[in-house]
Amino acid sequence: MFMSFPGIGARQARRFVYFLLNADGDFLDAFTAALREARTRMRRCGDCQRYFETNGAETPLLCDGCRNPHTDRGVLMIVEKDADVGVVERSGQYHGSYFVLHDIIPPAEPDKKIGVPVLSLLQQKIRRANEAGILKEIIIALSANPQGDLATMELVKTLGSIGKNGNFKISILGRGLSTGTELEYSDEDTLKHALENRK
Ligand SMILES: [Zn+2]
């Protein structure tokens, strides 16, 4: 089970299993309750696809960022995961909107760079913004590794075809870091530099 978690190898997975085997009943009850609670309270935003906490009711369908009138809708940053949004927000260097792809190599579609459902949501979002004439720039900010590079190329091709009739440019976030680096682990200065030097 734990080996399917991101970044967890066989040794760490075994440590988790032994930890849970040794844990007392109260801890296990609290742990499973917290997981269940997260499943009910957390929801993907209908616009940017990031996870956000709801009050358990059906509304709102949009996260705080998407409901915030100060969010700059002229810029859209495409990232892989929620943790990347957190890193960029903490840097205080970006005030635009986001789109979270989640799986860039979807397990059920190994021959695809980006899952079909999420890519079509992204295309719809961009088409709407483009038709409304508000979108000025798309920033692709995926990991600097082979998967990230392939997904970036696919995005440039797919989204570029929407842009033919529009006014937005597509920038790729140069990380200024060695190959293999994930955005999640970039520090604030590097991120600031990368945002200033995007092309
Ligand atoms: Zn949102």
Please explain how this structure is put together.
It is built from seven helices and six strands; from the N terminus they run H-H-E-E-H-E-H-E-H-E-H-E-H. The chain is an alpha/beta fold. The protein has two domains: 36 residues; 128 residues, Dna Topoisomerase Vi A Subunit, Chain: A, domain 2. Zinc ion binds next to helix 3.
Total count of domains = 2
Task: Classify the fold: give the CATH topology of the largest domain.
Answer: Dna Topoisomerase Vi A Subunit, Chain: A, domain 2
Distance between termini? 41 Å
Overall pLDDT score: 85
Shape, principal axes of CA atoms: globular
Number of strands: 6
What is the percent of helical residues? 40-55%
Regions with pLDDT < 50 over 5+ consecutive residues?
Answer: none
What is this structure's SSE topology?
Elements: H1 10-22, H2 25-41, E1 42-44, E2 51-53, H3 64-67, E3 72-79, H4 82-91, E4 96-100, H5 116-131, E5 137-140, H6 146-163, E6 169-172, H7 188-196
Parallel strand pairs: 3-4, 3-5, 5-6
Antiparallel strand pairs: 1-2
Helix pairs in contact: 4-7, 5-6
The structure holds zinc ion (ZN).
Quick summary:
This protein is an alpha/beta fold. The chain folds into 2 domains: 6-41; 69-196, Dna Topoisomerase Vi A Subunit, Chain: A, domain 2 (3-Layer(aba) Sandwich). It has 7 helices and 6 strands; from the N terminus they run ααββαβαβαβαβα.
